[in-house]
Write a structure and sequence with these properties.
single chain; about 375 residues; alpha/beta; Non-ribosomal Peptide Synthetase Peptidyl Carrier Protein, Chain A; Rossmann fold; 7-stranded mixed beta sheet; 12 helices; globular; Carrier domain-containing protein
């Protein structure tokens, strides 16, 4: 049984291995997200034995996949590892979800929704757009006017400006939004849901909740949203590199604000635990529109100075130029829909920035006509 002092020393050893200040390592973060696996996990386990005298095996980082679980294991307080408790590995690590999704969630500092265009009460079509990792649905405020009969509503994360409290799952985030969405949708009208990047995951989970409740989702709009069945969560080291190089959330030469980086990091941790299951075929929207960018964040990774592992598919998805992407395995989650494909200018992080927002607006005008 390790003392609190030994646990703190252990985090110092781990922090040195993964090049992260131990004070910045949070209990809800996973070792996978932090980049501790394989040979590095083996070397770190050996260092913990030789430097502190802790008996840690490399696979203990898999048995106790989050920092909090691992600390409890070191203190001798851990029960059966969550990944082995029922003989199978679970995609979502973490405590059981409460019946009330708002239990323990602080009051949001910003409204949950922003009506960006039109009036939901009278518009022919109401489009709900969920945010990317920044959590700001107001980012869609740069869109040009989509149509006289189209209402655009951006959903804001409940954890904007308080990302330290964002430790819940993608599925629970959908539950935090569901009442807001239903409140704004005229009764009996089919839903149109969309989202950029992680926003596609939120839209998908909200579609599940709505259709389970007997509502109809008529259309989904996936905006450069890499399907979780095919793409990994973005590694922490890549987030750090992109932030350092000003490639993520930077506008007009200004670096991304700290609140955005914090919320993005919390989002990635939730995405790491997320593994979606298909929507029932009789509940799948008639149409799923995919909107992809073709540009990468850099023209040449080798010349960019970025120190990243290009064997990770989602890293390549962000950094490298692409061809015409299609369903990218979303068809497994949304079987039987009519899939349509459009392409816009810019890279993954420029989608709502001026000029590129005009390109997105043209596509949205077309797909909501």
């Amino acid at each position: 049984m390790a003392s609190d002092d030994d646990v703190n020393k252990a985090l110092e050893v781990v922090g040195e291995a993964i090049s992260i200040d131990p004070f910045d390592i949070q209990d809800h973060e996973s070792w996978k997200f932090l980049g501790l696996s394989g040979l590095l996990a083996s070397a770190t386990a050996s260092d913990l034995k030789s430097q502190i005298g802790l008996s840690v095996r490399p696979d203990d980082f898999e048995k106790y996949p989050t920092v909090g679980e691992f600390k409890a294991f070191l203190k001798g307080q851990a029960g059966a590892p969550k990944s082995q408790s029922n003989g199978t590995k679970s995609a979502s690590q973490g405590p059981p979800e409460p019946a009330d999704p708002w239990e323990g969630v602080p009051k949001p500092k910003v409204p949950l929704s922003s009506i960006l265009q039109g009036d939901p009460a009278i518009s022919k079509k109401v489009v709900f757009l969920f945010p990317d990792g920044s959590g700001a649905g107001t980012a869609y405020g740069t869109l040009p006017k989509i149509g006289n009969d189209v209402c655009i509503i951006g959903l804001n994360s409940p954890f904007l400006r308080q990302a330290q409290d964002f430790t819940c799952s993608i599925e629970r985030m959908a539950r935090l939004w569901i009442d807001e969405v239903r409140k704004l949708q005229p009764k009996g009208k089919p839903y149109i849901l969309g989202g950029w990047s992680a926003g596609g995951y939120y839209a998908f989970e909200v579609a599940k909740l709505l259709t389970d409740a007997g509502e109809k989702v008529d259309q989904m709009i996936m905006i450069d949203s890499p399907c979780r069945l095919l793409y990994e969560a973005l590694p922490a080291q890549v987030v750090g590199e992109l932030t350092k190089k000003g490639l993520m959330g930077a506008v007009g030469g200004k670096k991304a604000p700290e609140w955005l980086v914090q919320h993005f990091t919390s989002t990635v941790i939730s995405v790491d635990r997320y593994m979606p299951t298909p929507l029932a075929k009789d509940k799948v929207p008639k149409t799923v529109n995919f909107i992809w960018v073709k540009e990468g964040l850099v023209k040449s990774v080798a010349e960019s100075g970025l120190e990243v592992d290009m064997s990770v598919k989602v890293t390549r998805f962000l950094l490298e130029p692409r061809g015409d992407l299609k369903t990218e395995e979303w068809e497994q989650l949304l079987p039987g829909a009519k899939y349509k494909f459009d392409y816009m200018t810019g890279n993954h992080f420029q989608i709502t920035q001026p000029f590129h927002a005009d390109s997105l607006g043209k596509v949205l005008k077309k797909v909501t006509a």
